Every structure is written in structure tokens, then in C-alpha cells.
Amino acid sequence: MATSQLRLQRQSAPPLLRLLLPSPLLLLLLCTLLVPPLGVGAGQLLDASSVGALQAFKSALGVTYSDWNADLDCCFATCGPTDGWTNVFCDGDGQVTDITFQGGSPLSPGPLPLQLSSLTALTYIMLRQLRIHAELKAFTQHLSAVSGLQRFDMAYNFLYGSIPAALVTMPALTILALPVNYLTGSIPQLGSQLVELILASNYLSSSFPNPSTPLASCSAYSTCLTDFTGCPGSVRTSGVCGTICGGGCGEGEACAPLVEEGTMPGNTIPMECAVSIDSVPPRLMHTSAAAAMLLLRRSLGVTFTDWTATSLCLVSGGSMLTPHGWTGVRCDSQGHPIAIDITATTGQFLLPAPSFPSVVSTLQALSSIALPGNGIYTEFKAFAWHLSRLTSLKHLDLSSNVLYGPIHSSLLTIPTLTSLTLSDNYLSGCIPALGSQLLSLSLSSNYLSSSFPMPPTPLPACSAHTNCLTDVSACNTSEAGAGNQRSASECAICGGGCAEGVVCAPNLMVLRRAQSMQSTQSTQSAMAAAATLSYPMSCFRSRDSFLPVAMAPDAVAAMLALKTGLHVPFTDWVQGALCSVEWGADSTTHGWTAVTCNGEGHPTAIAIDLQELSGSFPSEMSALTALTHISLINDRIVAEIGALAQNLPSITNLQYLDMAYNFLYGFIPETLLTLPALTFLSLSVNYLSGSIPQPGSQLLELALSSNYLSSSFPSSPTPIPTCTAFSTCLTDFTGCPGSLRTSGDCGTICGGGCGEGEACAPLVEEGIEPGSIIPMGCAVSIESVPPRLMHTSAATAMLLLKRSLGVTFTDWTTASLCLTPGGSMLTPHGWTGVLCDSQGHPIAINITDATGQFRLPAPSFLLSSQPSRRSQALLSLETASIPSSSRLRGTCLASRPSSTCKHAPTDLSSNLLYGPIHSSLVTIATLTSLTLSGNYLSGSIPALGSQLLSLSLASNFLSSSFPTLPTPLPACSAHTNCLTDVSACNTSEAGAGNQRSGSECAICGGGCAEGKVCAPNLMVWRRAKSMQSTQSTLAVAAVATLSYPMSCFTSRDSFLPVAMAPAAAAAMLALKTSLHVPFTDWLEGALCSVEWGTDSTTHGWTAVTCNGDGHPTAIAINLQELSGSFPRQVSALTALTHISLINDRIVAEMGVLAANLPSIPNLQYLELSYNFIYGTLPTAILAKDTLTSISLASNYLSGSIPAVGSQISELHLPHNYLTGTFPSSGATFASCTCADNCLQSAVNCNAGDEALQRESGCDICSHAIGTVQPCGANRVCAPEVSPAAEPASLLPMTCHASGGKKSKRACKKKRSVCHPLQCGAGYFCVPFVRSCKGYKCVKLWR
Predict the structure, then answer these.
(1) Measured between alpha carbons, how far is 733 from 727 in angstroms, rounded to an integer?
(2) Percent share of the chain, pLDDT over 70
(3) pLDDT band at 183, cuts 50/70/90?
(4) CA distance 100 to 252
(5) Which residue from 534, 964, 1134, 1214 has the fewest beta carbons nearer than 10 Å?
(6) Quick one: which of 328, 293, 332 has its CA closest to 310?
(7) Quick check: helix, strand or coil at residue 509?
(8) In angstroms, how far is the first alpha carbon of the chain from the final one?
(9) ω before 188 within 30° of 0 (cis)?
């Protein structure tokens, strides 16, 4: 009864503080007051070091006694019934003196843990008849540290190998008993302290060593000794002394018995050579495993400094005395972790909410985890949620911590888990159903309630005492019944229970007070004070109740840009997805995989590990102002680090950056080491070269091991507290401990070095692991990859795309430079959101969250409808991404057949697209990734093409069932729709449970009539836009709160083509003749497409758009071959506002070509870029009162620029031969460019263009350009145009009479080269309509 009182007296103290016990004198006083005299069976409280050491012993040897836990902390000084710690005996001060096991359950092969060295009073260890099968040297490798050990007995086991000299010379050891084992080899020289030695029934050989002091008692009977002088004995009678293990084993091997079930120690059994402890060196951890362990280190908050990429891992069976890293970890022979044992290391787990990360599931060899006595304070469910994904886990010990909350069921049913120890925590709630695989379960000393569940099969070892259980009879131990449970007052924790979403937990304020006392007081007084504290239980929010939050709009934009920039594969990175909060648990459903946000929805940590990424961090990352942690471990990133990280300095609060285990190469940028907030940087296991820049004083930890970095580590006035540079090519490691690469390839990579503008890069192939020694070659460095001008035909198509989508980026101009892959984003360039290949062809378009960029009411992608030599202008385009708030609005996703739409955009997420999905889009032969999530699409999903690998349709209004797939999609998302079945979408979202409700799906009153489509209400959208334009920063928040009610609108397919008005048709036919328009459907009576109609509706008048009355409003004849001029009849086109003739190979004098354009009454937009137009700019064009946008880029115009009318808002004149100064005017330009001319000053257009004028080529027509025409009065400088010539290319230019003076006879013969002014007055030289091989003279319209 007295010992029970003593136990209950101490149970109110917390487990963490129970490890911090008062002095032995206070303990003795307590035991004197509470416990009867020793003669009645007295017990003593174990001290802190004893608890930790015994827990380590229990973990190492697999002790299954249920009373081996820190809550049962009395042990006895005399033999008799125990009240805890079976087979452990203490002295009067609570110090362990004896550990004695004889018979019973077999124990594991150890080794005996190093923590036994803390048992300073330990004098006797007996481990007899326990079937321990281990090499004696390995099993006892730490025993010499137990300085007071006097007696050691391991008789009747399966010990093998030689007797280590360290064992027989232990200074205090007087009795050593190792009989009935399988020991071999000679007996080492004995220490003089030995009094008794028993070695009978082994295979020891040679002669008995002559002891310096005769032994009082010695036995060596039944051995293979040849001389028994000094120790009575006899030779084995079985005659096997010379035959075991084939007569002997080689170096680094030991002769071991082949033990089978039922074999008894001492039996003659086969023996074979096994690897000895001395020949099992530590090894580097496997790459993927090390990456996962580094993530585990961060997630748990482990502070062992030897958990690094280059540390050696102790191999199972290897000697712990061999230098190694990865404290507490053991690996198999392939370097995969098989055991993690961090016992009683209070202070190692520093995070406020440590947990096992999801990547722990990749550690498939991990079979044992022991973290007892570490004071881990967190909710159990969140801490251990991902452990259920370990397929080899057999043993789990989380005892003696401060874990609280319920036990989650998935942990108890892990198929391989046989031993689970959760005793001495603060767990509450019911015990879930148990799995039949469990053999040992310890749940004692918690606050678990209800009754113990009936196991499928009786548990061989079970402990559940000191809880709040009403019945523990199903726990097959002597503890059955409620007599050893907590009292009703103890079980009334948290006032009897907590509300939903709240969990009963130890009060954090008390824990912090204890920790504060530890850090501010002396060790002795702190321990005594801390021991008097208790942990009152209070209701706290469960981590599951920290619900995910919507990500802030500006953060969404940056994260979607990151998704595109790094090719992040997660399909739940979409606008509208919820982000897990910092304290939230992974068990709560959320999106934005690998991202953690704060309560306001701003990302604080990004951990994209063990994926396959490529690209670079985008400039939009600067918007992530709360981001402190980035981890990209083992993502197979092949990139120059300068290119990858060029935008990281813009993340102002970044503190932690880990990019270990990748294929990064090149020089470390100085800006990376001096980020003002960065304290942790790991670039280990990469292929970085060159010298290390000066680190900033803010860095606290720098990991650069396993690279090709050279020169010496830079000296610093502020040393980095933790720095590693092992396995590098540094010549001096002062300031950063390290070592030279052993492979000897420091001076040979890339042939000894690369030239200027190059970087030494690894040649990575499929299957190569980071850190492998692979060939390296010189690659172009980021610094030597300048932007380049976009190819002429591609720029033409992109300008058409700009107009068609309504893109307002002002740097989408013919004079802008396009960024190329590998080039630095920091280099000045244009074409925002576009990436070009080395020939200047666009390969990617990424316009993310560019609200307001798409200003047209119905933007669409337009491609040339007529096959021609340039209809494939964007065939290099591989990806187009226009996600998030770009607010594309329309029904046409792909207005052309898949043959001409093969490079359609792949990401149109988070816009206002509505209507059905076009079937041709999902069957594009080359399209592998399509993201349409976060829109208002409706209708059924069309049949999918087999080429698709990733499809995201989440958050729309799609109906019916998900179509059956030709092949399963590796990545598929279709949640939050109105689908009846999504099982064919091969994800965990299968079923209707995550679809919209019936009320949500009743959009547009249940459906729209034929010719109508269900769309977001435009009035609401306009209201939102109005609020944005009239309010301040609150506008974004206001818009976010608006909803988009759905209404029926006329479908664009139902805006049928109309007959062109007669007067307009006459003018258009005159234009066809005058410009030699090749379209055969420009016919009287043909139907004209209307402004809101789609190209999918059959019509005539290609490239013309009409209003509802049949009057043309826009003419866009692009990428054709035209010649001539605009006829006078164009004045009849009163509704015409837009003219675009881009890249039509027009060879004409500007004054002749455009003489009649001012007569078009409402012309607003004129685009004549990329042609062969020459001569001077007509004053009438620039002064026309309705004209607001003019582009004449990439032509051959010369002369000065006339006065510009104030109505002009956009003027683009780059790539011409214009002279003089740009005139001042009253115009307020939204966009003006005049680069690459011969201007003396461009300040009135764009001051930046002054530095971009031609440096050569201004001596056209054999005259240097001045302020007057180089050809003189009435003459013009014109290009010599051949059939193969491209607009904007440097062509010979010659002088001709303006308007033409030569006889038309000069052009009667077909010409391979056309001199435009060789025809007579009133005639013009044009290509033959039916032949591209020559030219002829035709009469001009007047």
C-alpha cells in the first residue's frame, strides 16, 4: 500500500519534469516519510539518469515487461514482490545496482546501450538463458564505460566471436561468466582484478593465458584449448574443434551458430562465417533516404549537428566506437535507415509542434522508432499521423513525453507493427480497435477512458494501468480490473471534458515556466524547483480545428507563378484551394500540398521535396512577404544556381533555404549568402564549383558538403556557428570544418575548367542519383545568355495574339527583347511572361494573376485560318499558362481544329471561362497537361485523349460522369463540380462526396435554352471592376467577397453571321482587288462573322468582322502576301475601326499605300508592322482625329517624324530609318516605342529608346541620313526586296522617283527582284497573283 501511495504521489508530476529529479537527500526524505521500513519490502524512486538508461536498455534489448516505464519509478533493495521495473534493484539512494534476467522471453541482440554508463552504482548484470544471438564484441562494445561493474553473467546464450580484451580488463570486474555459448578464438590476456572466470562449453582455442594473478576460480571445460595451465578444463568430446566454419574464417569474419527455433544453447549445431563488427564500417546514407531524414530532422526539430548529407550512418552490426554521424540512427548495408533511437535527450525537439513529415513514408526499411523521454510536447494525432504509412515499422516507442489527445486508429493497425509503447504521456479518449498483429502494447500512465477494447487475439504483453479505464480485463496482464486506475478526481481532467474541436492538454504555460526556470537557474536549484511543478490539464484547440484558410489573392498569384516557374506537379495548387495553417494537422483536408500558411493566408513555408522540378524561382516571389522557409530537397533539379535563385533575394523575410541533393551547378551567387534574414542555407550534395563568396554575418548554419567548390573558405570577422564543407575541393577549411574529395576529380572536371561565360555542369541521365560521380561538361552560364529579338514571324503572331486577347503589357512590341531559357531575369527585357528559344521563337507564355490584362469583352486565341508559309508561326510554343485573375471571359477554349491548335494553352485556371469544354482541346496530340480549374465551365466532359498525363478540372460546374479514360491519368482532379461519378479520375477524390451540393448545381434555373449558355453575370463582374478602380487597397478584398450569380446568356455560337451591307461589300471588293487579297470567300452575298460570334460558325469574308448591321468593324489580314494600296472606296466603310496588315510582305511607298486611309471616318487602330513599307510618314495619318493606335514597326520608313496628334495614345515606330528628333506634342502616350531608328533624340516618345538607336546602317541609299531626304526632292529610298527577304532584315536600298517615273514596259518581263518604282506613273510592281516567281506592273487605284 505504501509503494502505491508513493507512486500516486509522483504521478501528478509531468513526465518531462519527472526526468529532472531533486537531490538524493530529498528523495531519501520522501521515501522515509511515505514508505515503511525496508524490512517490509521498501522501494526507492529512480533518479533521472536511471530512468533514461533503463529506457535505452529496454529499447536496445527489446524488454517486454509492462512495468518498465518511467511512471512506475520504485525499485527494491531486497528480493521479493516488485512494484515496478521487474529484475531491477536499487540501493537506498534510488541508484540502480543490479539488472538480473534469467530465463523468460528472449532478448534482442543489442548492443548494450551507452546510456548504462550513467548507472554509476551498477555492479551486477546477469543476462542468462535469454537466447541472445550476437557477437560478444558487438554486444558489449559500450560495457567498458560502466566503470563500477563487478559481475557480468551471460551464460546459456548464443554468443559468438572472440572475447574482447576490453571486457576482461575492466578495472572493477571480478567475476565474468560466459559458459555455454559459441565463443571462438584465443583468450586475451586477463586483468589482475579478475577473481572468477567461467568459460566452459565454448569453442575457445590456443592455450589459456598466464594470468598475472592466479584466479580464485576458473573453468574451461568442454572447450578447444590446447593448454589448461592456470584454468582447469577439458577438450570438447564432440571432435568438432577443427571443423567448425570449415576450419576457420577469414579476416573481418566471426564463426557464428545457425540458430533455429527450438535450438537450445550448448547444442552442437552448424556454424558458419558471419561478418564481424570490426569489418562493418559506417557508410553514407542512401541519397533519397538522407533527403527524407533531413526533412525529418527539420520537421521534428532535431538538433543533432551530425545529421548531415555527408555523415556516415552506423550499419547494423557495426561498432559504435567507429567514428560516424547520424546520432541515434542505424542503417542497413545499402544505407537505408532501419532504426531511429533518440532516448532521453531533452532539448533535442525544439519545435513548438513537432511531427513526422509525409516523406517519412519513403523510409520503407525503417522498422524501429524509439523517442522515449524527450519531453516532446504536441498533439499525438498530428505528431504521428504519417507513421501509418511506414510499411516495415515493427517497434514504436514514444513513452515518457508530453503527447496529448486521442490515439488515432490507423496507428494501431499498421500491418507490421508488433510493439507499441505510449506509456507515460497525457493521452485521453477511448482506445481504438487493435490490430491482430500487435504482440506488445503499453498504454499505462495516461488518461485513456472507457474500456480496453477486446483484441482479435490475446496480447502476450499488455499494460494499461494508471488510466481512467473502466475495464482492462482485455489487456491480458495481472493489471486487470479498475483497482489500479486513476481516481475519479484525477480523471476529471479539463472539467470533465472539452467541446468539439478542442483537446485536453497539459497547460503550456506551466511547461514554459519549467523550461524558463531550467534556463535561468543553476542546475541543482532548477531541477529541484522544476520537480515541484505539476501540469494542470486545460482545453486547447485541437490541431485539426486549426482549419485551412483561403490563400491571400496576391500570394495565390505568386504561388501559381512558382508552380509554372518550377513545374510543380501538385494538382491542388489552384486558386480557391485552402492552405494548411502553421499549427494545423495534415489530417485535415486541404490543398496547396507542401505549403503552410499563417492565419491570414500568407505562405510561411514551402517544402517541395522528393519531386522532379525544373526551371527557376519567378520574380513574383517578392509578393510572399511572410515566407520564411523554402525546402527543395532531392527534387532532381538540373539548373545553374544563379539562374534558379536569381529572384530569391526579393523574398525579404526568407530565413531557411535547403536545396540539398539536386544537380545544381555553377558559382554560388554572393546575393544568396547575404540575404538579410537568411540564417540557414544548405546546398550539400550538388555540383557547385568555383570559390565561395563572403558569407553574410547573419548566417548561423551553412552546409556545402559534397560539391566541387574550390579555393579556400573565405575568412570572416563573424564565424558561422555551424558550417560543413566535407568532400569538397577547398584548399583551406579554416572557418568551416571539411575535407577534400577522395575521388581525386577536383582538378579534372570539365577538362580542368570552363571558359568565360560558361559553367561546369553535370551530364545527368535517367536513374542517376545526386552526389554520384558523373561526367561534367561546360554549359552556357546565365550571365552569357542575353535576351534576343523575337523572330519576325513569331513577333507578328504574338502581336496578333496580344490584340486578340486584349493583353495590355506595353513591352509586347517588335523592338522588345525576349528572355531565353537560362537567361537572367535580371537582364532588361520585354515580352513580359514570354520565354523564347535561341532562335527567338516563343516556347512558353505565362501570364499569371494579371488582373486587368485582358480588357476585351470576349478575348480568344486566334490563329491564321488560311494555310500559308507562315501559318505555323508559333509551332515552337510548348506551353501557355494564363491562370489566376487574368479574367479571360468567353466560351471558346479552342476555336480551331486540333491540327492548327496543337500548341493551345495548357493552364487557364482561375478565370471566368464558362460554357462547355471543346472536345478538340482535350484530344490535341501533343497536349499532356491541361488545367482548367477554378472557372465556370458547365456541361459534360468530352472524351479524353490518351496523350493526357495531367488534367485539372476542379472547381467548375461540370455535370454527368467523368468519362472513361483510354489509360489512367497519373494526375487528375475533378472535385467541386456537379459530377455524379469521378471514379475514372484516378485520385482519392473518387465518389460524389466532394462534389457540389444540389443547390449549387442548380445554376441558371437548372439549364438554358438552345443557343444560350450559363455564364457568370456580367453586371456583377463590372461592379467588381468598378470597385477596384474606385477604391484603394481595400478593393481587392471587396472583390474577393463578391459572388458571381449565373445567368443564361446568348452563346457566341448563336451570334450568327450576317449578310454584309451592299455599300460595304462594294468597298470590300474594291479593297480585295486593290490589295490583291487572296481570300476566295470575299464574295458578294457571303456572310460576315459578327463581333461576338465565334469562328466555329461557318461564314465568309475571312479576316473580317462585322457589326449586327453587316458593316465591317475590323479587318485583320495577317501573314499573307499583299500588294497595292487602299482604294478610295474605303471611305464607305463607316463602321470600320480596326485595320491590321501584319507581315503581309507589302512592298509600297507609305504615302501611296495609305493615301485614302484618312477618309475612313471612324478608324481607331492601324497596324502595318513587319512589311516592306518605305518613304516618309504622312502627316494626315498622324493627325487623323479618330486614330488612337498606330504601329508601323519593322519597315523601311525614313525621313523625319511629323507632328503627332494629341489623340494618339499608342505609337510604335521601332526598326525603321527615321531621322531627326521625336517631335513634342500634346499626346499623352500610354505606350510609345521608337528604338532602332536613326533618331537624334527620342525623349518625347520613350527616353529609354535614346540608347537603343542604330549604331550602323543609317547610310541608306549610299548617303548618310541627315535631316533631309537622302535621295533628294521627289525621290524616295526603297529596299531591294527578293522573294526570300524577311521584313526588318538589312536589305540594299536605292533611290527612286517618288510615285514612279519609268515606263511600265520595264516590268513586262517577270522579275526575280522587284524594284518597286520601275513601273510607270500610276502603275505598281507586284507579284504575279498565280506565281511567286516573278512580278508585274498593275494600275493603282486613284
Answers:
(1) 11
(2) 77
(3) very high
(4) 32
(5) 964
(6) 293
(7) helix
(8) 122
(9) no
- Cα dihedral: 672, 678, 681, 687 (round 10): -10
| pTM, full prediction | 0.51
The β-bridge relationship of strands 1058-1059 and 1087-1090 is antiparallel
Strands 419-421 and 253-257: unpaired
Name which of 77, 73, 126 is nearest 99 in CA terms. 126
Q: How are beta strands 395-397 and 368-370 bridged, if at all?
A: parallel
Q: What is the pLDDT of residues 1299-1310, one digit of tens each?
A: 644 333 334 444
Computed from CA positions of residues 1301, 1303, 1304, 1306, in that sequence, does the dihedral angle turn out positive or negative?
Answer: negative
User: What is the rounded CA–CA span in Å between residue 189 and residue 170?
Assistant: 12
Looking at residue 504, its amino acid is C
877-908 confidence digits (pLDDT tens): 444 555 443 333 332 232 222 222 223 347 78
Over residues 1028-1051, mean pLDDT: 50
- Please give the Cα distance from 199 to 218 (Å, whole number): 8
What does DSSP assign to residue 1173?
E
CB 664 within 8 A of CB 642: no
Cell triple for residue 1325?
510592281
Say if CB 1229 and CB 1212 are below 8 A apart.
Answer: no
Q: For residue 382, what is its C-alpha cell?
A: 498530428
Q: How far apart (Å, rounded) are the C-alpha atoms in residues 874 and 877? A: 5
DSSP 1054: G
CA–CA dist 1081, 1097 (Å, integer): 14
> Which of 1064-1068, 1118-1122, 1293-1297 is predicted with the least confidence, judged by mean pLDDT?
1293-1297
Residues whose CB is less than 8 angstroms from the CB of residue 970 and which lie 6 or more positions away in sequence, other chains included: 949, 950, 986
Cα–Cα distance for residue pair 26/1334, rounded to 1 Å: 112
Joined grid coordinates for residue 1217: 530609318
Please give the torsion angle defined by the CA atoms of residues 855, 861, 867 and 869, in that order, rounded to the nearest 10 degrees.
70
Distance (Å, rounded) from C-alpha 1135 to C-alpha 1139?
12
User: What residue type is 17 in one-letter code?
Assistant: L
User: What's the pLDDT at 1167?
Assistant: 92
Taking residues 811-830, report their average pLDDT: 74
Q: Which helix (H) or strand (E) holds 709?
A: strand 708-709
Q: Mention every residue, 6+ apart, whose C-beta is less than 8 A from residue 107.
A: 61, 62, 63, 101, 127, 130, 131, 132
Question: Cα separation of 167 and 431, whole Å?
Answer: 46
CA angle 942/947/948 to nearest 5° reads 60
Q: Is 61 helix (H, G, I), strand (E, B) or coil?
A: helix
Q: What's the CA gap between 287 and 980, in Å, rounded?
A: 44
Mean predicted confidence (pLDDT) in 240-245: 83
CA–CA gap between residue 1112 and residue 1104 (Å, rounded): 7
In this predicted structure, what is the pLDDT of residue 1053? 67
Question: How far is residue 943 from each of residues 922, 963, 968, 1007, 1289, measured CA to CA in Å?
Answer: 8, 6, 13, 22, 46
Alpha-carbon distance of 953 to 944, in angstroms, equals 12
User: Residue 445: left (phi > 0), alpha (psi -120 to 50), or beta?
Assistant: left
* CA dist., res. 343 & res. 404, Å (int): 19
Q: What is the dihedral of CA 1143, 1146, 1152, 1158, to 10 degrees?
A: -30
The rounded distance, in Å, linking the Cα atoms of 814 and 339 is 62
- Which of the four pLDDT bands, split at 50, 70 and 90, describes residue 872? very low
Find how far residue 915's CA is from the centre of its chain: 34
Grid cell 500516486 is found at 8
Assess contact for 621 and 647: CB atoms under 8 A: yes
Which grid cell is 969?
Answer: 491519368
Task: Return the SS3 of 331.
Answer: strand
Q: Would you call 1234 helix, strand, or coil by DSSP?
A: coil
SS3 state of residue 1038 = helix
- The C-alpha atoms of residue 761 and residue 781 are separated, in whole angstroms, by 10
Per-residue confidence (pLDDT) for residue 167, from 0 to 100: 93
The C-alpha cell at 1193 is: 514597326
Model confidence at 528: pLDDT above 70: no
